[in-house]
Write a structure and sequence with these properties.
By secondary structure, this protein is an alpha+beta fold. It contains four helices and eight strands. It folds into two domains: about 5-10 and about 95-175, PH-domain like, CATH 2.30.29; about 25-90. It has helices at about 15-30, 35-50, 55-90, 160-170; strands at about 5-10, 95-105, 105-110, 120-125, 130-135, 135-140, 145-150, 175. The strands form two sheets. A four-stranded antiparallel β-sheet has the order 1-2-3-4. The protein has a four-stranded mixed β-sheet with strand order 7-6-5-8. A hairpin with a 2-residue loop joins strand 6 and strand 7 (about 145-150). Helix 1 (about 15-30) crosses helix 3 and helix 2 runs antiparallel to helix 3 (about 55-90). The protein is elongated.
Amino acid sequence: MSAKEITIPVRLDGKTFKKFSRFDMFRLRRRWVRPVVFALILLAFAAAALLSRKPQAGLIAAVLLVVGMGLPLVYFGTFFAQVNLQAVQRGLDSPKRVYTVRLDFDGVHVTNDQKKESPLSVAWKDVQAVFHVRGCVYLYVSPVQAFLLPDGQANVPDAEVWEYLKEHMGGKCRF
Protein backbone atom coordinates (compact mmCIF):
# COMPACT_ATOMS: atom_id res chain seq x y z
CA MET A 1 0.00 0.00 0.00
CA SER A 2 1.53 3.28 -1.10
CA ALA A 3 -0.61 5.62 1.04
CA LYS A 4 -0.03 5.74 4.78
CA GLU A 5 -2.90 8.17 5.22
CA ILE A 6 -5.95 8.80 3.07
CA THR A 7 -7.94 12.01 3.34
CA ILE A 8 -11.47 12.27 1.97
CA PRO A 9 -13.18 15.69 2.11
CA VAL A 10 -16.75 14.43 1.63
CA ARG A 11 -19.17 16.40 -0.53
CA LEU A 12 -22.61 14.86 -0.18
CA ASP A 13 -25.60 15.34 -2.47
CA GLY A 14 -29.24 14.32 -2.20
CA LYS A 15 -28.96 11.37 -4.57
CA THR A 16 -26.13 9.77 -2.58
CA PHE A 17 -27.94 10.43 0.72
CA LYS A 18 -31.18 8.84 -0.55
CA LYS A 19 -29.33 5.84 -1.98
CA PHE A 20 -27.63 5.28 1.36
CA SER A 21 -30.93 5.61 3.24
CA ARG A 22 -32.50 2.93 1.06
CA PHE A 23 -29.47 0.67 1.52
CA ASP A 24 -29.45 1.10 5.29
CA MET A 25 -33.19 0.64 5.73
CA PHE A 26 -33.96 -2.14 3.28
CA ARG A 27 -30.77 -4.05 2.51
CA LEU A 28 -28.81 -3.84 5.74
CA ARG A 29 -31.55 -3.66 8.36
CA ARG A 30 -34.11 -5.55 6.24
CA ARG A 31 -36.97 -3.38 7.45
CA TRP A 32 -39.07 -4.39 4.46
CA VAL A 33 -39.69 -7.90 5.79
CA ARG A 34 -42.30 -7.17 8.48
CA PRO A 35 -44.59 -5.01 6.30
CA VAL A 36 -44.44 -7.59 3.51
CA VAL A 37 -45.18 -10.47 5.90
CA PHE A 38 -48.05 -8.44 7.39
CA ALA A 39 -49.49 -7.85 3.91
CA LEU A 40 -49.17 -11.53 2.99
CA ILE A 41 -50.90 -12.65 6.19
CA LEU A 42 -53.83 -10.31 5.65
CA LEU A 43 -54.05 -11.31 1.98
CA ALA A 44 -54.19 -14.96 3.04
CA PHE A 45 -57.01 -14.18 5.51
CA ALA A 46 -58.86 -12.26 2.78
CA ALA A 47 -58.58 -15.26 0.47
CA ALA A 48 -59.78 -17.56 3.25
CA ALA A 49 -62.74 -15.26 3.87
CA LEU A 50 -63.70 -15.35 0.20
CA LEU A 51 -63.35 -19.11 0.05
CA SER A 52 -65.68 -19.54 3.04
CA ARG A 53 -68.59 -18.22 0.91
CA LYS A 54 -70.37 -17.00 4.03
CA PRO A 55 -72.53 -13.88 4.11
CA GLN A 56 -70.44 -10.70 4.38
CA ALA A 57 -67.29 -12.61 3.35
CA GLY A 58 -66.75 -10.19 0.48
CA LEU A 59 -66.88 -7.20 2.81
CA ILE A 60 -64.47 -8.79 5.28
CA ALA A 61 -62.11 -9.73 2.44
CA ALA A 62 -62.24 -6.17 1.09
CA VAL A 63 -61.41 -4.69 4.49
CA LEU A 64 -58.53 -7.13 4.95
CA LEU A 65 -57.21 -6.30 1.47
CA VAL A 66 -57.37 -2.56 2.07
CA VAL A 67 -55.63 -2.81 5.44
CA GLY A 68 -53.15 -5.45 4.24
CA MET A 69 -52.05 -3.36 1.27
CA GLY A 70 -52.64 0.10 2.73
CA LEU A 71 -50.54 -0.04 5.88
CA PRO A 72 -47.36 -1.26 4.12
CA LEU A 73 -47.86 1.39 1.42
CA VAL A 74 -48.18 4.07 4.11
CA TYR A 75 -45.08 2.68 5.86
CA PHE A 76 -42.93 2.82 2.72
CA GLY A 77 -44.41 6.12 1.57
CA THR A 78 -43.67 7.72 4.92
CA PHE A 79 -40.10 6.46 4.83
CA PHE A 80 -39.44 7.89 1.36
CA ALA A 81 -41.12 11.18 2.22
CA GLN A 82 -39.00 11.55 5.37
CA VAL A 83 -35.78 10.82 3.48
CA ASN A 84 -36.69 13.41 0.85
CA LEU A 85 -37.52 15.94 3.57
CA GLN A 86 -34.22 15.28 5.37
CA ALA A 87 -32.30 15.80 2.13
CA VAL A 88 -34.04 19.14 1.61
CA GLN A 89 -33.56 20.24 5.23
CA ARG A 90 -29.84 19.46 5.02
CA GLY A 91 -29.52 21.45 1.81
CA LEU A 92 -28.36 18.50 -0.27
CA ASP A 93 -30.01 19.62 -3.52
CA SER A 94 -26.48 20.39 -4.70
CA PRO A 95 -23.25 18.76 -3.42
CA LYS A 96 -22.34 20.12 -0.01
CA ARG A 97 -19.17 19.68 2.04
CA VAL A 98 -20.23 17.88 5.22
CA TYR A 99 -17.20 16.21 6.84
CA THR A 100 -13.63 15.13 6.26
CA VAL A 101 -12.61 11.53 6.86
CA ARG A 102 -8.97 10.66 7.46
CA LEU A 103 -7.91 7.02 7.36
CA ASP A 104 -4.55 6.16 8.90
CA PHE A 105 -2.78 3.34 10.73
CA ASP A 106 -4.64 4.09 13.99
CA GLY A 107 -8.16 4.16 12.57
CA VAL A 108 -10.81 6.49 11.22
CA HIS A 109 -10.84 10.19 12.12
CA VAL A 110 -13.80 12.37 11.18
CA THR A 111 -13.99 16.16 11.36
CA ASN A 112 -17.33 17.91 10.92
CA ASP A 113 -16.97 20.63 8.28
CA GLN A 114 -20.35 22.23 9.00
CA LYS A 115 -20.02 23.06 12.67
CA LYS A 116 -17.32 23.29 15.28
CA GLU A 117 -17.15 20.12 17.35
CA SER A 118 -14.42 17.80 18.48
CA PRO A 119 -13.25 15.27 15.89
CA LEU A 120 -14.42 11.67 16.14
CA SER A 121 -11.72 8.98 16.21
CA VAL A 122 -12.50 5.28 15.97
CA ALA A 123 -9.88 2.52 16.11
CA TRP A 124 -9.97 -0.04 13.32
CA LYS A 125 -10.98 -2.81 15.72
CA ASP A 126 -14.07 -0.78 16.73
CA VAL A 127 -15.31 -0.05 13.20
CA GLN A 128 -18.41 -2.17 12.65
CA ALA A 129 -18.46 -2.76 8.88
CA VAL A 130 -17.63 -1.34 5.49
CA PHE A 131 -19.85 -1.76 2.43
CA HIS A 132 -18.79 -0.98 -1.11
CA VAL A 133 -21.71 -0.14 -3.35
CA ARG A 134 -21.59 1.39 -6.80
CA GLY A 135 -20.34 4.94 -6.45
CA CYS A 136 -19.79 5.00 -2.69
CA VAL A 137 -18.36 3.28 0.38
CA TYR A 138 -20.44 3.14 3.57
CA LEU A 139 -18.21 3.12 6.64
CA TYR A 140 -20.16 2.07 9.75
CA VAL A 141 -18.32 3.24 12.86
CA SER A 142 -21.17 1.97 15.05
CA PRO A 143 -24.33 -0.02 14.39
CA VAL A 144 -26.29 3.22 13.95
CA GLN A 145 -23.71 5.66 12.55
CA ALA A 146 -22.15 5.51 9.12
CA PHE A 147 -20.01 7.83 7.07
CA LEU A 148 -20.41 7.94 3.32
CA LEU A 149 -17.28 8.05 1.18
CA PRO A 150 -18.40 8.86 -2.39
CA ASP A 151 -16.10 7.82 -5.22
CA GLY A 152 -13.68 10.34 -6.64
CA GLN A 153 -13.30 12.48 -3.52
CA ALA A 154 -10.20 10.97 -1.87
CA ASN A 155 -6.61 12.08 -2.34
CA VAL A 156 -5.91 8.64 -3.87
CA PRO A 157 -7.75 6.53 -6.50
CA ASP A 158 -10.98 4.84 -5.40
CA ALA A 159 -9.52 1.36 -5.78
CA GLU A 160 -6.74 2.29 -3.37
CA VAL A 161 -9.26 3.51 -0.78
CA TRP A 162 -11.09 0.17 -0.97
CA GLU A 163 -7.84 -1.81 -0.74
CA TYR A 164 -6.77 0.26 2.26
CA LEU A 165 -10.09 -0.45 3.99
CA LYS A 166 -9.88 -4.17 3.19
CA GLU A 167 -6.33 -4.27 4.57
CA HIS A 168 -7.41 -2.75 7.88
CA MET A 169 -10.89 -4.26 8.20
CA GLY A 170 -10.39 -7.77 6.90
CA GLY A 171 -13.66 -9.71 6.94
CA LYS A 172 -15.76 -6.69 7.83
CA CYS A 173 -15.64 -5.41 4.23
CA ARG A 174 -18.56 -6.39 2.00
CA PHE A 175 -19.65 -5.69 -1.53
